[in-house]
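User: Fold this, then the next.

Assistant: Folding the first:
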Amino acid sequence: MKNGSNEEALLRIQEALRAAVSAVSRFVPGNVRADYKPGQDPVTEADRVANEVLRKVLLREGEGWLSEESVDDKQRLGKDRVWVVDPLDGTREFVAGIPEWCVSVGLVEQGRAVAGGICNPATDELILGSRETGVTLNGKPVQASQREGLAGALVLASRSEVKRGEWDRFRGAPFTIRPMGSVAYKLARVAAGLADATWTLVPKHEWDVAAGVALVEAAGGFVRDPKSASVRFNSASALLSGLVAGGPWLREAITTILDFGFPILD
């Protein structure tokens, strides 16, 4: 197996996910103290512990590092290969004891997310994939939804966005909207064919979505930003304007409803 290949990276990702999950297993979801960052985003000791473990297992000489729980080292901008990780995506759910959180690891090469993995220990789901290997769920090959239209589709939505009313415009749509925490987990479920699509039209950091983008694209699905452009990583700001992802045949239908919406039903 060639050093530096996506296959080698996947082995490293799998090892890192398992090590991080083991390290945070001593913390009890729903019974953990949270501090709050500016903007009221929660962070726990589990986030910090997972970050240390991931960095130790993943990072090699010549590679860059971008993590929600690390000070951003801008030297990553000069690296061709960068690890983009969220040590615990869905911290709000973790603190609340809701089983919608995961450890998320993405590998970016020359601005593209080429390999990734997420592990949700609460649901016993390990989703891994790369452009070279395809995607697996707990070791079994999976692919993105092959649904050809949105009628009857399952679309995963941010629980916070739904509470704020940002999905009210889709109340007349012919698909089921399921609120869920952790954008990384939502993207991974789309990659595994467990949901047909997901989108968020509010800014997200690269660490929120790098692994999920790699997984959806490796599974044959599509990912774009709200302006229909491809998603690029390892930017100076590490901020994306939003994200749209789904099965390969849904791109046009999703673009249409995002542009024009549906009549709201009373």
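Now the next one, as you asked:
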Amino acid sequence: MSKHKILVTGGCGYIGSHTIIQLIRNTDFEVISLDSCVNSSEDTICRIEAITGKDIKNYKIDLRDRDKTASVFEENNDIIGVVHFAALKAVGESVEKPDWYYDNNINSLLNILWCCEKYKVNHFIFSSSCSLYGNVSSLPVNEDTPLSKTESPYAHTKKLGEEIIQSLIHVNEIQAISLRYFNPVGADHTGKNGENPINKPSNLVPYITQTAAGILEKMTVFGDDYDTRDGSCIRDYIHVTDIADAHIKALKYLLAGKNKSNYEVYNLGTGNGVTVLEVIKAFEKVTGEKLNYAVGPRRPGDVVAVYSDSSKALEKLGWKTEIGLDDMMRSAWKWQQTLIEEKEG
């Protein structure tokens, strides 16, 4: 076992937890988590441990508290890299509570970067988002696509986050990569870990699975009058395990000194645009479940269509997606059934 540690912020969250699982499966790093659990549950650590057979330490700390955040680095002086997921992420909620999003997402980032500089942790992976592209004039988008006006405070925090990282690393030795990923879906192949929002889901796939399970009476498709092939929004859905693996490849890339610049950006997507209605049909096909859904008005903050050109990630990081839409839906439903069985048990 390597004595080197990787700190995953937001490790109890959806993508963070899957990244911890993949780090344990595919590397010899020791992994620690930092998560306030304001939007997640510490039970996720138990799920990670059950899947991997490894004990995981989670520090239940709010990253906005600089002193407490620094204490994690003081206690773990062998951290060599940080993968920073911790952030509020619901587009609709950010429109309703912009002050909360700016306070949490920006101040958390500032503090973790301050700690990285102070404790000389020079490898930093930032969880960014395709949402900062806004409504683009041509598709697919690549890393050189001009950034349009962001459509939500959430997206704006990601855009500001990237700018903050670029500004700060000019005065220190931090090497950073921002991964702009598209729409994470699915669950671990074991069915023992997946997306489990504390409140009513804001992302499409848990909305689908909870409706199919009868937890929600019906689901709403937000708009069917967009200029797309069936009127619903187009997104690039990508399995969460593929995203987790990209973070590991990016981290190893930095640790090996392969980066040509102290700041690089990569898109993570399949390259295939899929409509909301097509996702619903795929779910119904692979599960045999008929969804109760209705079309509602457009949701503030949503862009019409976005999908990725991820050829740069293939060329530089050696990364590409491996899991298709049907398996995304199949794994998400397997996870939902696990949650049902646990509740009934």
